[in-house]
Amino acid sequence: MTEFKKSRFAVGIDLGGTFIKFALVSETGEVPFTDKLSIGTTAKQEDILNTIDQAIRLTIEKANENGVDLVGIGIGSPGLCCDGIVVGGADNLDRWENIPLSDTFSHAYDMPVMIDNDANVMGLGEVAFGAAKDCTDVIFITVGTGIGGAIIADGKLYGGYKNRGTEMGHVTIDHKGIDCNCGGKGCLEAYASTPALIKQYAGLTGKNENEIDGFYIVTKFREGEAEAVQAMQEHTDYLGHAIAGFINTFAPQKVVIGGGISEAGQFYIDMIKKSAFSYAMRDCAANTDVVGATLGNLAGSLGAASLIFRNII
Ligand SMILES: [Zn+2]
Questions:
Q1: Are 139 and 238 contained in the same domain?
Q2: How, if at all, do strands 138-143 and 147-153 pair?
Q3: pLDDT (tens digit, 9 = 90+) per residue, 296-312?
Q4: Which among 261, 243, 259 has a CA at the least distance from the CA of 197?
Q5: From the CA of 9, how far away is ligand 1's center (Å)?
Q6: 148 and 285 part of one domain
Q7: CATH code, domain carrying 198
Q8: Residue pLDDT, tens place only, 149-188
Q9: Which long-range contacts (CB under 8 A, 24 or more apart) does 244-248 make?
Q10: 311 Cα to the center of ligand 1, angstroms
């Protein structure tokens, strides 16, 4: 482990709906230790805080065993995060509002603790260590049960005033469209999340939605089944439309697509890219590429740790 000692390390905590993933991460993206702890679906606020504490403790123990220079703790959490506090908006976690995560753990461990929204830190992770390494202007989109994302502008996470923005899944793609979970109508998420894809495919085939998942549709797509091809084309076209708007607004160097279904294969990214470029303004897209995320389920922990490296001198 001696080669690690030259580098600074941080604890990266990725709080999800049912698990806490955590890692010891070096400034250059090495991960000598990673693990996860279950919080189940019914954990109380106190249990969640205790499990975060346990995750931090386990990671610090590993850091001490390896004699590395630990400079801080980064945490990605569902919900709105501002000034070190989870303000709210994480409906799946018990009373997850007005939680002063930074103060709580910086006092407990006597080191800087930085927090941000989970999708934001995933995007930051891809910029720090993954698909958009060395880029300064990046749009990150994660496609799953919902659609989230992050904007990195001029090398920094951009979250709007008080970090309340960048809900990339809730741009309108059909103003007279179907209802969205957010209370709006016609949002990207309502059309292009994985459940929306499944619903669309089930509608075309008459199959039971509950017996289909994204993997099944990808398999049928690869076999050339007409309904799967149609559903996948519409799905990627919805994403392409929204991404074209992001390209026209932000002129990113890269649009990074993450989430489980993005691992279906390069064809998935290529379909989205083709669609996005067919709608985007050519001048805005001149320096843009559309690529798949590369950090998989480590993106959150790595990105959380990078909050520290980017902000601690
Ligand atoms: Zn919405």
A1: yes
A2: antiparallel
A3: 999 999 999 999 998 87
A4: 261
A5: 38
A6: yes
A7: 3.30.420.40
A8: 999 999 999 999 999 999 999 999 999 999 999 999 999 9
A9: 244/275, 244/276, 244/277, 244/278, 244/279, 244/280, 245/171, 246/139, 246/168, 247/139, 247/276, 247/280, 247/281, 247/284, 247/285, 247/288, 248/280, 248/281, 248/284, 248/285
A10: 32
- CA of 79 relative to ligand 1 center, distance in Å: 15
**Same domain? 140 vs 249:** yes
* Residues with CB in 5 Å of ion ligand 1: 170, 180, 182, 184, 187
- 5 Cα–ligand 1 center, Å: 46
One domain for residues 119 and 173 = no
Domain span at residue 281?
133-293
120 and 152 part of one domain: no
Of 20, 159, 125, the closest CA to residue 77 belongs to 20
Q: Sheet containing 156-158: which strands, arranged edge to edge?
A: 156-158, 147-153, 138-143, 254-258, 289-292
Rounded to the nearest whole angstrom, what is the distance from the C-alpha of residue 82 to the centroid of ligand 1? 21
Same domain as 148, residue 80 = no
How many Å apart are CA 81 and CA 156, to the nearest integer? 16
Q: How far apart are the CA of 179 and the centre of ligand 1, in A?
A: 8
pLDDT tens across 39-85, in order?
988 899 999 999 999 999 999 999 999 999 899 999 999 999 999 99
How many domains does the chain divide into?
2
pTM as predicted: 0.95
For residues 154 and 34, membership in a common domain is answered with no
- pLDDT for res 4: 60
Residue 3 pLDDT class (50, 70, 90 cuts): low
Ligand 1 centroid to Cα of residue 144, in Å, is 14
Could you read off the pLDDT of 276-297 as tens digits, one per residue? 999 999 999 999 999 999 999 9
Is there a single domain that holds both residue 122 and residue 150?
no
Cβ 132 vs Cβ 103: under 8 Å: no
